[in-house]
Amino acid sequence: MLWPWKGRGGEGKARVDYVWAFVVGGGLCVVAQLLLDLTPDALTPAHVMVIFVSLGALLSGLGLYQPLVDLAHAGATVPLPGFGHALVQGILKEAGREGWLGLVTGGLKATALGLTAAILVGYVVALLFNPRG
Amino acid sequence: MAGKRVGKSTVAFARPPVVVAAGSVVGPMEGKGPLGSEFDVVKSDNVLGEGSFEKAEASLLREACEIAAYKAQVPMSRVDFLLAGDLLNQLISANFVARDLGVPFFGLFGACSTLVEALILGAMAIDGGFASRVLAACSSHHEAAERQYRFPVEFATQRPPTAQWTVTGAGAALLAESGQGPVITHATVGSVVDMGLKSPNDMGSAMAPAAAETIWRHLQDLGREPRYYDLIATGDLASLGKEVAEDLLRRVGVDVSGVYDDCGRMIYSPGQDAHAGGSGGGCQAAVFCGPLVKRLKAGELRRVLLVGTGALFSPTSCQQGQTIPAVAHAVALEGPGRGGEG
Amino acid sequence: MKATPGQARRYQELVSAKTPRKPVARNAALAFLVGGAICALGQVAFNLFVSRGLDPVQAAAPTAGVVVLLGALLTGIGIYDELGRFGGMGAALPISGFANSIVSPAMEFKREGLVLGVGAKMFTVAGPVIVYGLVTAYAVAVARWLLLGG
Q: Rounded to an integer, what distance in angstroms lies between the CA atom of residue A131 and that of residue C107?
């Protein structure tokens, strides 16, 4: 079962996966784009990114983000709200397992892979390449 | 005293200084624009083998100064003052060029109005008898300005249609007591105007009121009509700012249609994805020191009002929610004109 | 001269009337296409990890890792900023945009040195994202933990 399109319940299921990932992921980006375009210029892309991470965390806490993840998988976990969701779920899971200590460590533990990859790869790429403009 | 003043904010030069030579150097994108063939030097890339965008900007400015001096056959040792500025913090481009050229130096900051500010002060120094030859110069560099004022260039962002594209380029004009070339007859010094706009993505509209006020004031002080000039050229209001400035002038009964254009609009063609147009001190500097001086010398243009416009903000003032003040200065130039005209 | 609030408002109205509208519908469509495509690409990685035996919850993290890697590399070779100019938030919102926000300043500030240039500027945009993500996540999680016990 090496090939991704043959995974998880056969070809038909996988194809539907891609459609949902595309639609939900693209849909989140549309909401972000509208937020950027329909508000005054003081709101930069950086602000929108921050807002969406926080929004993901909030929706996750209210139990509203998990259904989106179940439906769209990468479509919900790859956009930045997925990062907020991972933080919240990580905290709650660790806290359930290890009490208050888990409450402290859970967030970064759950997102360790993404953050470490971003910093390490980011560092190496920055050393290897130069901006071209 | 003050016998050379006319009206509220204009000065008339008793012995009008001459723009004896000018040098212009631009980057590859500006070279591909509609004025590309009229610049002295078009660079093939934006780093120029200098190792950093900031060093590249200084080398553009230095080259523009050297070209101007070379054309006039004046060694740097005989230039009395260098008046120059740029957009980078603490004027590093101008300061480093001044270090290399060894000419007595005043660093100026008027944002994108710096070239006109330098022309005015240089003309005053010459007419006042304090100098025989003055170099007035200004530069900007797209990538160097972007990372100081906005985001790094490789950061994936969209620009709104009102945003302007900082020009990579420099211009230097050599002024002298006498010689061949267009003369600076008058200068109008603007005061700072702030109409309460805040968006760094629409500097043209922030500067338009200052430009309109200076143009209006200049015409009032000298009792002139816009048609007196063949060309009124603002610095970098770009499409929207130009439209707003025209509207503001119309409201006070001044019709500039047919004679008015903006250097930020002239430097790029619509297909170049520069949004509203060019900006940055190098925009007007390169356009004036390249195409406009050439046309003045050739007699294609006889009378030009060059209006420098500067948005006087910093990333800090913007982040702290301050509005964007702006200034505009104007110099009136007269060329020798076509032989048989009159 | 600074405009009075009334003058400023009238001037703002004059400018707004002339300001070209942002192509909102076009931007939204492009954001959908670019963002959707990146997520579909993520889904390829996700399905691969699941087919290799990870459960869907476990697979999310390495999927993010793959998308981060892609975003960083495309930034390095100068493609991601073009993708951003084209797709707007469609390129910025996926975690590859987060990687772009780390790599782009890091590359650009290399000349200011490895510590205060690369090391510090990497987090110009990523820093706020991590900080507010973490702060909100803790506020939400602690509230939920206290109220519902997890």
A: 6
